[in-house]
């Protein structure tokens, strides 16, 4: 497995794989890899002859008051996680390698990025779309793998690829959870022991919603109320948002329908966690 820090070297490697007719799967990450990322690598490995993992904590997608400086990083651990999964190449660029001093071009997906997390994190998805486009252009994969945990990110990237005719297949992969249901996230490492216990309330509220849906409930207002109750019963939790939207357009739905996305963001202490599920008949 190679660890490469420059764009030129990635291009050389990709060119030689392409000359051999090999297919390439890309797993873009910000590092501090966990089983969620490894499940993306496993899918990439299954579908492609070569797998590239990028590790880049992208400054452009962090707001001024967000956790860019404290975002967890551990390259040595990440290398082992990638090696275990049979990854061929890690691209680990510096911020200067990705953004030169005169950098001034951005990719913006309108509409979808104003919903859900976009309301609270202005500029976040512009940063994501810009860096993902750059990573696509640098690595030129056949397929790219994203977790459904970041459901809005997945919907936005799918829209972007379609709108801009980017010839890459986007594969969404299911959420990977801890044994008690908490969705795996690099940010879980911020939680104290007590907060870690409290964090289960996100999954509990999802389970509550799923039970109601199974019993025939279709009113979004009724389901939301029950979910809010579950989370409000946890003293360390504070709801940022819970919403039901159409997964493709991210516009709100009042009555549950096929492919409704229920997305939630909840503060546990100072840590903001997200989770979701997509409703299928
Ligand atoms: O999901 C992430 O880790 C990031 O948003 C991504 C897609 C790697 C872009 O920086």
Task: Provide tags for this entry.
281 residues, alpha/beta, Rossmann fold, Pantoate--beta-alanine Ligase, Chain: A,domain 2, 2 domains, 6-stranded parallel sheet, 3-stranded antiparallel sheet, 10 helices, 38% helix, binds pantoate
Give your account of this protein's structure.
This protein folds into 2 domains: 2-173, HUPs (Rossmann fold); 186-276, Pantoate-beta-alanine ligase, C-terminal domain (Pantoate--beta-alanine Ligase, Chain: A,domain 2, 2-Layer Sandwich). It has helices at 7-19, 35-47, 75-84, 95-98, 116-120, 124-139, 151-163, 193-198, 200-214, 220-232, and strands at 2-4, 24-29, 50-55, 89-91, 143-147, 169-173, 237-246, 260-268, 271-279. By secondary structure, the protein is an alpha/beta fold. The chain is built from 10 helices and 9 strands. Helix 6 crosses helix 7 and helix 9 runs antiparallel to helix 10 (220-232). The structure holds pantoate. Pantoate binds at residues 28-30, 58, 61, 128, 131-132, 150, 153.
């Amino acid at each position: 497995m190679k660890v490469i820090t420059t764009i030129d070297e990635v291009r050389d490697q990709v060119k030689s794989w392409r000359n051999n007719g090999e297919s390439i799967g890309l797993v873009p990450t910000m590092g501090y890899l966990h089983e969620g990322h490894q499940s993306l690598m496993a899918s990439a490995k299954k579908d492609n002859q070569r797998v590239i993992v990028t590790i880049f904590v992208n400054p452009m997608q962090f707001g001024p008051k967000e956790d860019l400086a404290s975002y967890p990083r551990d390259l040595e651990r990440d290398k082992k996680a990638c090696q275990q999964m049979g990854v061929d190449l890690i691209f680990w660029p510096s911020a200067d390698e990705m953004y030169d001093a005169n950098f001034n071009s951005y990719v913006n997906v309108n509409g979808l990025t104003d919903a859900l997390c976009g309301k609270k994190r202005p500029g976040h998805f512009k940063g994501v779309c810009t860096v993902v486009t750059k990573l696509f252009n640098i690595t030129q994969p056949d397929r790219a793998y994203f977790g459904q945990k970041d459901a809005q990110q997945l919907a936005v990237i799918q829209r972007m690829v379609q709108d801009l005719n980017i010839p890459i297949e986007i594969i969404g992969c299911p959420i990977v959870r801890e044994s008690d249901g908490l969705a795996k996230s690099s940010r879980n490492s911020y939680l104290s022991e007590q907060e870690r216990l409290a964090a289960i309330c996100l999954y509990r509220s999802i389970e509550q919603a799923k039970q109601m849906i199974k019993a025939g409930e279709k009113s979004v207002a009724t389901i939301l109320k029950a979910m809010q109750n579950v989370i409000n019963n946890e003293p360390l939790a504070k709801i940022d948002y819970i919403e039901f939207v159409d997964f493709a357009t991210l516009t709100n739905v009042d009555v549950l329908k096929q492919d409704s996305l229920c997305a939630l963001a909840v503060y546990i202490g100072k840590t903001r966690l997200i989770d979701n599920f997509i409703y299928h008949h």
